[in-house]
Amino acid sequence: MSDKPASKKFSLAGMGVDLTTAGPAIALLILCVIGYLLNPAFISEGNISNLLTRSAFIGIIAIGATFVITSGGIDLSVGSMAAVIAGVMIITMNALVETIGSGVATVILGCLCAIILGIGAGYINGALTTKGKIEAFIVTLGTMGIFRSLVTYFADGGTLSLNFEIRGVYRPVYYDSFLGLPIPVWVFAVVAISGWLLLNRTAFGRYCTAIGSNESVAKYSAIKVDRVKTYTYIIQGLCVALATIIYVPRLGSASSSTGVLWELEAIAAVIIGGTVLKGGYGRIGGTILGALILTTIGNILNFTDMISNYLNGTMQGLIIIIAVWLQRGSAKN
Amino acid sequence: MVEIEAVAVPVLRADCVSKSFGKVPVLFSINLDIYAGEVHALIGENGAGKTTLMKVLAGFHSPTSGQIYLDGEKVALPPNGETEKLGVVLIHQELNLAEQMSVEENVFLGREIMKGGVLDRAAMNAKVSEYLREIGLNISASDRVSDLSIAQKQMVEIIKAISRNARVLIMDEPTAVLTESETELFFQQVEHLKSKGVAIIFVSHKLGEVKSISDRVTVLRDGQWIGTHSVADLTLDAMARMMVGRELSDLFPPMNEIDVDAPVALEVNNLFAAGVEGVSFIQRQGEILGFSGLIGSGRSALFEAICGINPIYSGSVAVHGQARQFTSVAQARDAGIVYLTKDRKGKGLLLNQQMRPNLTLFSLPKFVKRFGIDRESEENALTRAIRRFDIRALDSGVNVGDLSGGNQQKLLLAKIMECDPSIVIIDEPTRGIDVGTKQQIYHFIAAIASEGVSVVVVSSEMPEVIGVSHRVIVMREGKIAGEVTGDAINEYEIVRYATGLKKESANV
């Protein structure tokens, strides 16, 4: 559409490549080439599969965040929300072991519980923002603190561990593969495709974009602004729940340090992907690439000694700043 | 021209001042002079160029041609409000105060008194308190501006101006937002300033006020200087006649005869809402009903309440004989009643999007097929709309913000017509668009009405209301001031209702 962040910055512009959509893809490609040059093992099947699996958590959350940000909101609470959902889920499943045993039913009930919590938490964020007329930044800053302290309280300052027997049943959700791809990658793909369809092909998606562009226009155009905005937070909550469901079997535990800074990584993925932070223009495809870029940086740093792995955050930070700087460049044109 | 003191030199004088924005001329060779201790009123219809003239006098716009004289000497006024240093202060209609700061801080904003590198609050406080006492305003220098009433805020603006040794005070509709008692207080202050030798220029639509407070009055019409007269020489009716007095051209389509037996489409009974105080009217099917009145007389507020944008406090609305109270725009739309906003850019169109999503946004449920948006029927709708409303764009992929105002307005009309409404309310149908497009829009309105759709035209441009409407309702201060039909529809009648010279009761 109107945002062509990279067109003047790269010489590729002359080749007729639409850098609007291609920008993040090219960045990812360059990163992969760098990764391969540093260590050919980068493109090994094992590493690619690992990279995709790692991207799935942030990616799924970031897809939810794309809806919130496109409609002009922000959700800072997602990391804490993931932690509290993981905690409550573990407590629930451990409790269910005593009544219905450590079978698949327990895991399914645990997952249901996670989904209900995610939707509920999203609804609270949405309702406070719309009905309560409080800025989204403040509402979610508040719930971020609340969720984080709740998980610390539930874990009594320590770690909540999943019952050992259930761990065995639940484990495949993270570690198994289907048709050669790990389960988390499948979930990521399904969420991504659904998200893309919802944002680009339905009236709801159009409404999100309209609200983010200009809330008054949306209101005068017979759009139920409050309802649509609340739904975006519910979608965000649902995405967090799904990400948590595939995350819990990885370590089988939750603590106050679970999901720390995930909100910033999710927002970063959305912005790197070309979605405009102030709303009105969202790209699910870009968000997926953004999540992949962030994970790839960390992965490459693991492969090389040239830059310390501790500088992961520095590299991610630089990428975010460059991405937004390129967006600003387009605003001036 | 009547001069108060033949020997005196005017403090501020505009000589043959013209102003164009781009290619659009707004002011044509205006003359105006103002003397110390004089109150000079500026009157004219909306769009006559009053605000532009005031901005030229205060240096916010530089004149395209003509000269400004200050104390008899030719000057080029500095831009951006720096004329304040020369003693010429413009008080905008939207007051320019920092709401969260105190009265004292506001008055001294940007020229604080310092002592030893820090603010000398005591000195500033003492000065402001003295001004407040002098002007007889019962507030404290440390009160926060956001806690003050609008009238008090206006006084703070005036104190700010006096404290800058203003010799010429230019005010844009200072009384528009004041109640009667506040207006009285305001006029006392004006008299006080006048006695101190301050020259005051003010715009007002309330002719009664103009008559009682000003010494001379200048009338503008369509950017032209019509005359400057001593108030004593003019009756209120004469002022109204000078403001109007214009020939209607064949801008307007021939009007269909209205079927007096047509069923009632819209019936509003004793409606109260924010800015609306007990309004009742009926509209028949296929009728074009004009709503005239001054800005802020409650016309937009009335229809925003009817269409579910703002809440209704009390009263009833019946659409096609069925009592309805809409709580959302979507409900109103589904009942066939739609509102086209006057704020095309702020509330009407998504400027950073293309025409297609803008066109279908209002009636999007109609374009949903199996959960998804049917792009093909959207494209067909756009093709139809472009043909029906003659929307001209280089290609359909341009952002709506890059279209001309006229094409934006046509697209907005197409957007609300896309849901096949039976009652259409168009607020300011031709604001800021050229004459050719205006004419097209008037023809669209007539065509829509001839299909049996009831059209309400809310407009501040009187020729427009008169030219397109079967019947005109005039609003004033949230109430219906009067109604004019048939041959009685003329600007003079409407102005008399809108400015409060004539009351409905007098008409019955």
Largest two-chain interface: A-B, 23 and 31 residues
Shape designation of chain B: globular
Instruction: Walk across the major sheet of chain A and give the strand order.
Output: 1-4
The major pleated sheet of chain B works out as: 6 strands, mixed
CATH architectural label of the domain at 44-259 in chain A: Orthogonal Bundle
Multimeric status of the protein: heterodimer
Write the layout of secondary structure elements.
The complex is a heterodimer of chains A (333) and B (508).
Chain A: H1 19-38, H2 45-70, H3 78-100, H4 104-130, H5 136-154, E1 159-161, H6 164-170, H7 172-175, E2 177-178, E3 181-182, H8 183-201, H9 203-213, H10 215-220, H11 225-251, E4 253-255, H12 262-272, H13 284-303, H14 312-332
Antiparallel strand pairs in A: 1-4, 2-3
Chain B: E1 12-21, E2 24-34, E3 39-43, H1 50-57, E4 65-70, E5 73-75, E6 88-91, H2 103-107, E7 114-115, E8 118-119, H3 121-135, H4 150-163, E9 168-171, H5 180-195, E10 199-203, H6 207-213, E11 216-221, E12 224-230, H7 236-243, E13 264-273, E14 276-284, E15 288-293, H8 299-306, E16 312-319, E17 322-324, H9 329-334, E18 337-340, H10 344-348, H11 355-361, E19 368-369, E20 372-373, H12 375-388, H13 405-417, E21 423-427, H14 435-450, E22 454-458, H15 462-468, E23 471-476, E24 479-485, H16 491-498, H17 504-507
Parallel strand pairs in B: 3-10, 3-11, 6-9, 9-10, 15-22, 15-23, 18-21, 21-22
Antiparallel strand pairs in B: 1-2, 1-4, 4-5, 7-8, 11-12, 13-14, 13-16, 16-17, 19-20, 23-24
Helix pairs in contact in B: 11-12, 11-13
Features:
heterodimer; A: 333 residues; mainly alpha; ABC transporter involved in vitamin B12 uptake, BtuC; two-stranded antiparallel ribbon; two-stranded antiparallel sheet; globular; disordered N terminus; B: 508 residues; alpha/beta; six-stranded mixed β-sheet; 17 helices; 24 strands; 32% helix; 26% strand
